[in-house]
Amino acid sequence: MAVxxxxxxxxxxxxxxxxxxxxxGFLEVFVTENLSRIVLFLVxxxxxxxxVFFSLRIAFRxxxxxAPDSAIQDNLNRYxxxxxxxxxxxxxxxxxxxxxxxxxxxxxQWQEVLLFVNQEPFGKSDPEFGxxxxxxxxxxxxxxxxxxxxxxxxxxxxxxTVLTHYxxxxxxxxxxxxxxxxxxxxQIAVVAALFLVLQGVNYWxxxxxxxxxxxxxxxxxxxxxxxxxxxKAILAVAAIIVAVLFVASAxxxxxxxxxxxxxxxxxxxxxxxxxxxxxxxxxxxxxxELSLEGEYIDRNIAMTREAYGLDAVEVEDYNPEDVxxxxxxxxxxxxxxxxxxxxxxxxxxxxxxxQQFRQYYxxxxxxxxxxxxIDGEVQDTVIAVRELDTNGVPEGWVNxxxxxxxxxxxxxxxxxxxxxxxxxxxxxxxxxxxxxxxDESTYEPRIYFGEDSPEYSVVGAxxxxxxxxxxxxxxxxxxxxxRTTFSGEGGPNVGxxxxxxxxxLKFQSTDLLLSNQVNSESQILYxxxxxxxxxxxxxxxxxxxxxYPAIVDGRVKWIIDGYTTSANFPYSTQQELESATQDSxxxxxxxxxxxxxxxxxxxxxxxxxxxxxxxSVSLYAWDDQDPVLxxxxxxxxxxxxxxxxxxxxxxxxxxxxxxxxxxxxxxxxPLPRHLDGRVLQQQRGVERAGRSGxxxxxxxxxxxxxxxxAVLPDAADAQPGGGRVLADHAVHPLRARRPDxxxxxxxxxxxxx
Length: 753
Description:
Distance between the termini: 59 Å
Radius of gyration: 32 Å
Largest sheet: 6 strands, mixed
Structural class: alpha+beta
Strand content: 15-25%
Helix content: 40-55%
């Protein structure tokens, strides 16, 4: 009975997920991921369990009928007697348990497997082996996973084989030495040969792994190319030869040759794999580092730029004037007039004091920045939505999940102007929502899906039933509140008893199951954070945690940037995403929330939107030339919309995100300056840019302690990668543009860099 209950609870959660994905229109994502996990689990389970089971079975069935008496054998006989009652159970249970662990571990590699099967070529090759970049991004991770898994299977099978033979007398310690029966010798030799073959494959793959090395310089350097890579090839061949010796020993009956071969392989691995490269580095490379390493550091620089989308950078002379010129400030009047006066990190308190109106509303600690065209001019705007604060809601299940369900309205202020008394100059404010951005007749102000929405809400009612949800105060000064009924398609239906039971189990709430507030038309809204919502429907993306709201086509939309990332781009320097997006301009704890993972390839490949009213998710292929994104489109052919489907209104609010804006700059900054492509400045002695006014700046940034420069597409340049360099604190307008550079450039908010 307990097993049935556990199974029902588990399956009910799967069913709840199916309903959620189906309602959003992304059931394909759920099915593909889980089928992939199941298939990988089953394959790994069968391989591991089968290998261990047959190793145990063969070793047991080939045991000697009679083993000579000895003190050791007497002890082993007692163990055999104790194990005999549960021997069958152990011979089945051990493989099943090990298979379950193996299957669980393998199922977590579903993304690597899907990318391997559905990979798209890059059309470019690495400078060392001439392999397409796709080999390193998709094929090598898969082969490494398979090889590592099979080596684990062989090692565990070998342990099972040796222990069983030893327990039942197939391997014995005698006065003359170690004795093995013919059956034990053959089985051990075959397992050892399999291990060595796989180790040989592993050595061969290690050659390619050198291009992913991370040190002072990324990729394979002189020592790697001239010592490590040839050594790995020699070790791969040697491992295969020793494997053949083990197979031969199974029939010859002597262990001497394979054991000598194994010893030689170990010695070779230590000398050729460790000592020899160290000698080359110390006595050949160090004295001539400038001439020997230059070519490989050139590769590191070029491919790091390519991996971060900086391969079209240009170097420009920047000669700032030390002496201010009279009238210069007046000449820059148009620019200085747009300097942001409101700090989105600090102005939240003012928004709360002036625009909260009720204790059950709240604003985030850090507001967002957007831009709107007002009276023909693009206006820098500090913007937020008035979200529901459950801490201010009266206690009780009905209040928390049925009556108080949503926030209300956009509040926006001009970023570059303030009132005479220092208050924000609001462009959109009040209850009901009014201002230059629209009112209730021109946009939907209700916020059911936001960054601080309740865990779940039950909404919806049959036509004609009195509204139950608290909508908003009648006005800013009124104690009366209007009511409303959710009219969209925002969540799974819980109108029938079975669905109510499923979600009562999911949220561990008997109220959800028994309350008369739940009716035939009720929907349950959950997973309401925009970033989390996109993460579930696009698990292959690294998401920028800094989602921002915008009024788009009469709806409030949360806009989220999605990146394709990898740590497997050859010769590219890795960066930690989280630290790469922080600088002196970013308040502590307010940096763009990216995972703390190491990457050396990033593309802002997807723009995602989440409707604040009904939670609908749209994914747009922003960089449709990115091979990683194209590979995922092969996996999920219907989940992404083409860039052309983005409305003009949405395009007007797209911006270049902070994550890849600063990350590539920092990835490029440690790289040395090249004069004629050959001069090497070692990492430990890289000059700090900005120490003198006449230093050269590199687009993407090489500036030491200077605020990182950013690559800004030039509106006048229609060629891919065209642009100019601006310091991080510059006030010139940013422009977001698709990577193909064929669409119109879009202005981004000043200061959002």
